[in-house]
Design a protein that fits this description.
mainly alpha, 77% helix, 0% strand
Amino acid sequence: MNWDMIQGKWKELKGKVQAKWGELTDDELDQIEGRREELVGRLQQRYGKTKEEAEREVDEWMKSL
């Protein structure tokens, strides 16, 4: 699945995102709206990760879909 598909199915995928990164709130997920960079930024803020760590996690999650 590519990122364009994820954006298109964001409402369906929000539950999977929250299962993976449980500290993200529903409001944050609504604000992210499937934007990859926004998700990476929120993971950096919420979990104290580097940009590279957050990007790697997002890419691994995307490949698992």
